[in-house]
């Protein structure tokens, strides 16, 4: 059954223009072509990336965090309470006001103490600042090196400058060693991201990130199998061109270097918008959507490939809205750049406020009214006295 399914899936009429097929991609006369079995190489590369990442985070990222002054916030742990812990783990991390009242009766805590317990318990589950910094520094390193390597592999290729060249001679396009390693390393890296997604920092766009990783892996794998390699290398280069700016901005943000973070983020926003909202849709997708039909009749692989590109473009628009919102807020109000996708700590400011109020009440009883956190002494005497 599996063999029949495989035979149906890899039908030539699905993946190739009329008159062409897998026989055209058989190695001959010293010319080498991409093959589906080559993709298995990405699996050990993905596992190798996971190992290298652990070593990098311990030997490079952690000392770098210390050098840049990354400081952890002091978090107060929630006291052990079996009833509240069971409710937190099994029902919800954010109880309603009515549920807080019920839990208060069960535990003997006041409503305020129950709220404080859940706030502290949620903070315990949030990733530390050092964990965020190490993850950002690892991605920054890869994206920067991948962009440099991709640029070096494509700088002398005619399809970097004239996008129509990516379809000249398709699908009989010889595989170059630089293309092979560029593909396998990129595919291995995104595979490692998918493997580590459960342990990485989870943000509000977690689902979108999963869709992005899966779409990217499918796009890279598919373009490899049917020899869309020239288009694939251009797409990977465009994506790597802005990501290292974002990761470096995160690193400076976690280190508390506000100005460096803000201005790098503005550079990232400009590069992202140019590459993802203009070059990608109006140059690359235009060339993969419009030009091939002038050479061949549309076929399933043509629609499948462009469909994956459109999924990526929808994600680009989603992220561009978040990026523009942050950039406008910074440029108009000079506010600090913050990643809206991040799940921020619930600081103990509210607790400090509560403690201040208690302190103020004591002072009021002792010394009189309190205003703006300061004692207002009795000053009702007449000026003439």
TrEMBL record:
Official protein name in the record: Ceramide synthase 2-like
Keyword Lipid biosynthesis among record annotations: yes
Domain named TLC: residues: 131-332
Record-annotated DNA-binding residue ranges: 86-129
Keywords, sorted A to Z: DNA-binding, Homeobox, Lipid biosynthesis, Lipid metabolism, Membrane, Nucleus, Transmembrane, Transmembrane helix
Acidic residues: compositionally biased ranges: 345-354
Catalytic activity: sphinganine + octadecanoyl-CoA = N-(octadecanoyl)-sphinganine + CoA + H(+)
Species, as recorded: Solea senegalensis
GO cellular component, one term: nucleus
Biological process terms in GO annotation: ceramide biosynthetic process
SMART domains the UniProt entry points to: HOX (SM00389), TLC (SM00724)
Pathway(s) where this gene product acts: Lipid metabolism; sphingolipid metabolism; Sphingolipid metabolism
Family matches, as PANTHER family: CERAMIDE SYNTHASE 2 (PTHR12560:SF7), LONGEVITY ASSURANCE FACTOR 1 LAG1 (PTHR12560)
Stretches for region Disordered: 338-385
Membrane topology: Multi-pass membrane protein
Cellular compartments annotated: Endomembrane system; Endoplasmic reticulum membrane; Nucleus
GO molecular function, one term: sphingosine N-acyltransferase activity
InterPro entries according to UniProt: HD, Lag1/Lac1-like, TLC-dom
């Amino acid at each position: 059954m599996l063999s029949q399914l495989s035979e149906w899936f890899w039908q030539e009429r699905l993946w190739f223009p009329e008159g062409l097929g897998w026989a055209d991609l058989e190695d001959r006369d010293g010319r080498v072509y991409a093959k589906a079995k080559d993709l298995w190489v990405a699996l050990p590369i993905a596992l190798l990336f996971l190992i290298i990442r652990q070593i990098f985070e311990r030997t490079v990222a952690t000392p770098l965090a210390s050098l840049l002054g990354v400081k952890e916030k002091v978090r107060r742990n929630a006291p052990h309470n079996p009833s509240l812990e069971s409710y937190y783990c099994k029902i919800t991390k954010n109880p309603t006001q009515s549920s807080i009242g019920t839990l208060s009766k069960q535990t003997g805590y006041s409503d305020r103490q129950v709220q404080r317990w859940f706030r502290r318990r949620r903070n315990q589950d949030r990733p530390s600042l050092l964990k965020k910094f190490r993850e950002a520094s690892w991605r920054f390193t890869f994206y920067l090196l991948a962009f440099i390597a991709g640029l070096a592999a494509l700088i002398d290729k005619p399809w970097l400058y004239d996008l129509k060249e990516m379809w000249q001679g398709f699908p009989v396009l010889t595989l170059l060693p630089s293309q092979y390693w560029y593909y396998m390393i990129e595919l291995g890296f995104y595979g490692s991201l998918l493997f580590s997604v459960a342990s990485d920092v989870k943000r509000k766009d977690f689902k979108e990130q999963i869709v992005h990783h899966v779409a990217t892996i499918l796009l890279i794998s598919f373009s490899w199998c049917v020899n869309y390699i020239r288009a694939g290398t251009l797409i990977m280069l465009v994506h790597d061109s802005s990501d290292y700016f974002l990761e470096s901005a995160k690193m400076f943000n976690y280190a508390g270097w506000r100005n460096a973070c803000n201005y790098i983020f503005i550079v990232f926003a400009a590069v992202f918008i140019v590459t993802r909202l203009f070059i990608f849709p109006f140059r690359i997708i235009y060339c993969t959507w419009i030009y091939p039909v002038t050479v061949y009749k549309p076929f399933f692989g043509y629609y499948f490939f462009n469909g994956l590109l459109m999924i990526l473009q929808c994600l680009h628009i989603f992220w561009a809205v978040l990026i523009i919102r942050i950039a406008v807020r910074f440029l108009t109000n000079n506010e600090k750049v913050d990643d809206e996708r991040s799940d921020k700590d619930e600081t103990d400011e509210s607790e400090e406020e509560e403690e201040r109020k208690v302190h103020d009440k004591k002072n009021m009883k002792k010394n009189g009214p309190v205003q703006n956190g300061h004692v207002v002494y009795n000053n009702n005497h007449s000026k003439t006295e």
